[in-house]
Amino acid sequence: MTEVSVNAVSRDYEPTFGDYVALLKPRVMSLVVFTALAGLLVAPGGLHPFEGFTAILFIALGAGASGALNMWYDADIDAVMRRTAKRPVPSGRVEPGEALAIGVALSGISVVMLALATNLFAAGLLAFTIFFYAVIYTMWLKRWTPQNIVIGGAAGAFPPMIGWAAVTGGVSIESALMFALIFMWTPPHFWALALFMKSDYDDAGVPMLTVTHGRPATRRHILAYTVLLAPVGVWLALTPVGGPVTLIVAVALNAWFLKGAVDIWRRDEAAAEADNYKTEKAFFRFSLYYLFAHFGALMIDAALRTWGGL
Asked: Looking at residues 170-188, what average pLDDT do you find?
């Protein structure tokens, strides 16, 4: 995996701070931080603000470590996909060995420091999440099965459970539902992207569902997983961590998401190509806000309970 060609970057190039930040996948990290913060804030008991800040900091570092390890291992396929070719490792701005070293170092630091800042259970859950994403998903599932996104989605679903565990030292039905919300959201989110990225996954040899089963099957799967996702958000709103804001947001978001999935299911490739995948792109863009709105609503309800006596 270290034999990666350097794309149009001089060997004398010195990586910048921005290159190393990009190595940690800051966009993914932002979602990890937000959902982990939600899990931490809605958990019963609460943490001292400084403990809470350090917990989120080390969860974020763990997410960054996963991103660095993913970029190190996937540099070969990243180099041939338009969406990922400009990442630090395939573009040659960061050496593969550097990415590996940073990923391993941040993994150890984040897990040990989270254990010291909160508890061993939360740290163990973070360690398992890093291992799951870097090894189970990146090194095995992604290149082996079209269910890579389904099973691998668990890695992105753990952060709110880790935030909850940092406060409570365990898991509960509420944290399990937060996990399930992200887990069920991940397949339609990524499959919508795969529909309009067209040949990227074919070129890279990644067995995405669009490659192995075709686009009509992918459209059916998007609808099926969206139907399964909708009740999870409503159920979460009806638990003690939910409330009126979460319930309203869950009903509205999932109604729109279901409509988008039905629209995608009804379309064929000729219609999609005619309007440059307008419906699929709109569904994907909305999915980016879906989780932020859900978890934001949870935090608003938590604030209302604390400050307003609801």
From this structure: 96
Burial class (CB in 10 A: 0-12, 13-18, 19+), 167: buried
189 closest CA partner among 255, 263, 266, 283: 283
Answer yes or no: is pLDDT of 17 > 80: yes
The tokens of 24 are what?
């940690």
Region for residue 8 given its phi and psi (left: phi exceeds 0; alpha: psi -120 to 50; beta: otherwise): left
Pick the CATH number of 15-171 from 3.30.379.10, 1.10.357.140, 3.40.50.1260, 2.60.40.10: 1.10.357.140
Could you tell me the residue ranges of all domains in the chain?
15-171, 172-310
198-238 per-position pLDDT tens digit: 666 666 677 778 778 888 999 999 999 999 999 999 999 99
